[in-house]
Amino acid sequence: MSWSDKDPGRRAVLALLAPAVLGACGFTPLYGEGAPAAKMAGRVEVAQLYGAPGFALREELTGRLGPAVNPTHRLEVDLKLTRTGVALTKQNVTTRYDVIGTATYRLVPRAGGPAVAAGEVRAITGYSVPSSKIASAFAQRAAEQDAEHRLAIDLADRILQRLALSAGSWT
Fold first, then answer.
1. What's the pTM value of the predicted model, to 2 decimals?
2. Tens-binned pLDDT, residue by residue, of the chain (171 aa)
3. Is there a smaller number of Cβ atoms within 10 Å at the N or the C end of the chain?
4. Phi, psi at residue 132, to the nearest 5°?
5. CATH code for the part of the protein at 8-169
6. C-beta neighbour count of 80 within 10 angstroms
């Protein structure tokens, strides 16, 4: 019998041993109690971003970092989006677009001084548009806005992951 068999007893033993094995190798939860990343909550003010995609990105970042009650740092983000047609019909009508988002970020102390964390993250998403002439422009715009929102969530995930990994050096 192998460990891959669906034996509940063996799975229970693995579940009990996993924390000990992970702890022995130096693993600690990124957002665990007392971890530097857990201390980010309420300490980072997110600067204003413009446009619907910028608003969505700021909302994602603020929602996850929590309201900046006593902020010690300010997160500045420069968001750039590009759209590229990637699928054409035989009639030369674009029916699929990729939206590429690049977010350059800097985390600066509110008291002044150099950035304590900085970098650039990139994400790609896409959307389809109907090729029919009777399809509404509304449907195309709704698909585009949905893609921009998904992109904002992805970029926020990437920025927050990098901030969490570097939080020990600035919190």
1. 0.77
2. 455 556 666 666 666 666 655 555 565 555 556 666 677 888 899 999 999 999 999 999 999 998 888 899 999 999 999 999 988 888 888 889 999 999 999 999 999 999 999 999 999 999 998 777 666 788 888 999 999 999 999 999 999 999 988 888 776
3. N
4. -75, 140
5. 3.30.160.150
6. 12
